[in-house]
Amino acid sequence: MKKRIIIGTVISISMCFIFIIANLYIDYNLRKYSVYYAHNMEHKGGTRPELAMALENMNVIYKPDKKNIRYREDGGFTICNNYTDSEQAILSCDLGETELRFGYYDVTYKSYYFDDAFNLTLVYDSSVGHDKIDIKTVDQEALYKDIYKNFGFIVEANVNRKPRINLQKQFNKKYYKRFN
């Protein structure tokens, strides 16, 4: 009788351990290969899922060493591209009061803020006193080209990194509504 209880307990503990490890691996896989999955997911025009996933999962994706690039992980995630000592472009990811928020700060002292699907939501011009700018006056395609010119290397470094176990269906189930 004692032998059956011991064997049952060992099997139960082993199953729980395997279940926990499997769930942790799935979460890790979805975050580590999120740029690859986002690239291969159908998404609405105007959204930038690859860049959003790269910033959101900066702690686990591959970050290439590049001249004049600094990565900071102090609460949120920040990538700094230093052109000179006085000029730099910054791309950041912060968990706001209620939602995820991305920011881009360029050399013209303008601050651009994006929602969780990387759609432009706010623009401020700090060179004239932090005045709010109408989004309709911003050339968004030129803005996205500028962001990719400065920070597209992080997407390029991760977009072709294929996972050993492809969990594209789980990724689509989790993020489809966010990018559509």
Summarize this structure as a short list of keywords or feature phrases.
single chain; 180 residues; alpha+beta; seven-stranded antiparallel beta sheet; 5 helices
**Largest sheet composition:** 7 strands, antiparallel
Unreliable runs, pLDDT <50, ≥5 residues?
none
Q: Summarize the helix and strand pattern as letters.
A: HHHEEEEEEEHH
Write down the Rg. Answer: 21 Å
Strand order of the largest sheet: 1-2-3-4-5-6-7
Please render the helix and strand layout as text.
Blueprint: H1 2-32, H2 34-39, H3 49-56, E1 69-72, E2 77-82, E3 88-95, E4 100-105, E5 110-114, E6 120-125, E7 131-132, H4 140-159, H5 168-175
Antiparallel strand pairs: 1-2, 2-3, 3-4, 4-5, 5-6, 6-7
Question: Explain this structure to me?
Answer:
The chain has 180 residues and is α+β, with helices and mostly antiparallel strands. Helix content is 41%, strand content 21%. The chain has five helices and seven strands, in the order αααβββββββαα. It has helices at residues 2-32, 34-39, 49-56, 140-159, 168-175, and strands at residues 69-72, 77-82, 88-95, 100-105, 110-114, 120-125, 131-132. The protein has a seven-stranded antiparallel β-sheet, with helices on one face. The protein is elongated, with a radius of gyration of 21 Å.
Summarize the model shown.
By secondary structure, this protein is of the alpha+beta class. It has helices spanning 2-32, 34-39, 49-56, 140-159, 168-175, and strands at residues 69-72, 77-82, 88-95, 100-105, 110-114, 120-125, 131-132. A seven-stranded antiparallel beta sheet has the order 1-2-3-4-5-6-7, covered by helices on one side.
